[in-house]
User: Which sequence fits this backbone?
């Protein structure tokens, strides 16, 4: 296998979402991609205490599996992030894990990793949930590359290659061939302004990564209009956020 991908299943029962991940695993095999399916319920992930220690570069007071799982995500070439839809959004288990990754919004550690978003539902909530998963992937520094959604009516439909083509292509592409969308560029500008103005530890991290003078994490093709918009947005935001000494 050429590439290794981790798929996170965040439903306790191994049914609709898990079944979809298994089908996806088979499809990925044909593309020389190995998929490790990880069940979030096999990991102890405690609720965020809200202490913000992780944001300030300190260790999380919790002694559980959250950091080990975060470290595991970093080992893979790509990520499949999945959820059953509960009350119009992601499962509680996944939300708790996402909360625990909060430091990655400030100091992203999954930069450039393609992320495929997967959700299953009885009927409703697909659009909003996929959007939330996409936002999460962007906040981690990842690169959203397609989504697969299923309702009870479409659960047994075979997965079409058009649903995962973008993910596969991004796994094998060079980063300079990536083409970030406007929402990715906007998130990057927000994170950059926070790094410059709020926490010293973030600024040091961004300086070390050489991101502060960039429009995106790495050199890649950006549409001219998006470039202009992102630069203007950065200027506007930077002029509005007051610098805090921390
Ligand atoms: C607590 C809970 C909340 C749910 N909320 C919704 C919902 O808001 N909209 C919907 O259409 N289906 C809802 N469902 C149905 C699930 O999204 C659907 O059955 C999903 O495919 C389950 O995936 P799983 O088999 O991987 O657990 C809910 C199910 C549960 C258990």
Assistant:
């Amino acid at each position: 296998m050429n590439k290794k991908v981790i798929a996170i299943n965040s439903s306790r029962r191994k049914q609709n979402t898990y079944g979809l991940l298994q089908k996806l695993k088979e499809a990925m095999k044909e593309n020389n991609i190995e998929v490790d399916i990880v069940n979030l319920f096999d990991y102890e992930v405690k609720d965020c205490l809200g202490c913000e220690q992780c944001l300030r570069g300190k260790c999380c007071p919790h002694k559980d599996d959250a950091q080990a799982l975060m470290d595991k995500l970093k080992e893979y070439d790509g990520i499949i992030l999945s959820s059953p839809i509960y009350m119009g959004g992601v499962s509680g288990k996944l939300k708790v894990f996402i909360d625990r990754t909060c430091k990655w919004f400030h100091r992203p550690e999954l930069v450039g990793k393609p992320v495929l978003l997967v959700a299953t539902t009885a009927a409703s909530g697909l659009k909003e949930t996929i959007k939330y998963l996409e936002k999460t992937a962007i906040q981690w520094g990842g690169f959203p590359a397609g989504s697969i959604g299923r309702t009870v009516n479409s659960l047994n439909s075979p997965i079409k290659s058009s649903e995962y083509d973008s993910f596969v292509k991004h796994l094998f592409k060079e980063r300079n061939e990536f083409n970030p969308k406007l929402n990715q560029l906007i998130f990057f500008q927000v994170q950059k302004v926070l790094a410059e103005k709020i926490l010293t530890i973030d600024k040091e991290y961004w300086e070390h990564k050489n991101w502060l003078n960039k429009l995106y994490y790495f050199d890649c093709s950006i549409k001219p209009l998006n470039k202009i918009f992102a630069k203007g947005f950065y200027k506007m935001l930077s002029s509005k956020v007051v610098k805090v000494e921390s």
